[in-house]
Description:
The chain is mainly beta. It has strands spanning 2-3, 15-23, 41-49, 60-61, 72-73, 78-82, 90-95, 103-107, 111-112, 121-127, 143-151, 163-164, 179-182, 187-190, 210-219. Mean pLDDT is 94; it is low at 1-7 and 9-13.
Amino acid sequence: MGCAKYPDVPEAASTRLIFSMTVSGAIRTGQEPGGTGVPYIYMVAMRTSEDDIPTTGGPIPVIAPPWGNGYVAGNATHFVWWDPTATDDYLLYKFLDVQLNNRIIVGVPISVENVGVGSQRIRFELLLTQLVDDPLDAADLRSLQVNFLTMDRIPQSGSNKQWDALGNNAIPSEINSYVRVPLGVNGIYNNQSANNLEPTGDQANPDLDISDWSVEVRIE
């Protein structure tokens, strides 16, 4: 694990969120032999809620035109994007509008796993206070809706892209799947505890095919 360069949050925060996503092949960095220098897109999208069981949906993938922002729809509030071409490989973004067209960078994870050629996983840690404007408001958050997203590009034109997200891509009713993570207790939520919500092989490109995922809530 490597440490982020500049945590953007108070050190007194007590709830830590640990996210992990593994692919069947390898995280495409763009630096592979014969690579073009352009990485694939790997994101974790989130929606914070003050309800234990939210009545509105969580983040879902954008898979066809009209593309919108090209990567996530639904009711996302934040996302972390692993992007080795950025100033920091992992950046935390916040959406500014319900249409999810405008975003700003609000910080970096407090700890990250470095990704090299051949790595299969991205992993990072946030403090719950990073997901609110005022650290005191973190106490009001009761749950987090989460989706894991991979794609070969963020389209603004064209008719298709390669992608994966939670749920079986081959079953239309599962395409808009996400998980709800309670924030009031310690816990680990993963593909096994979710009855293998995300199957291996539903995306033919192994570098985009999500094979495992987890979210850990650690109250310290």
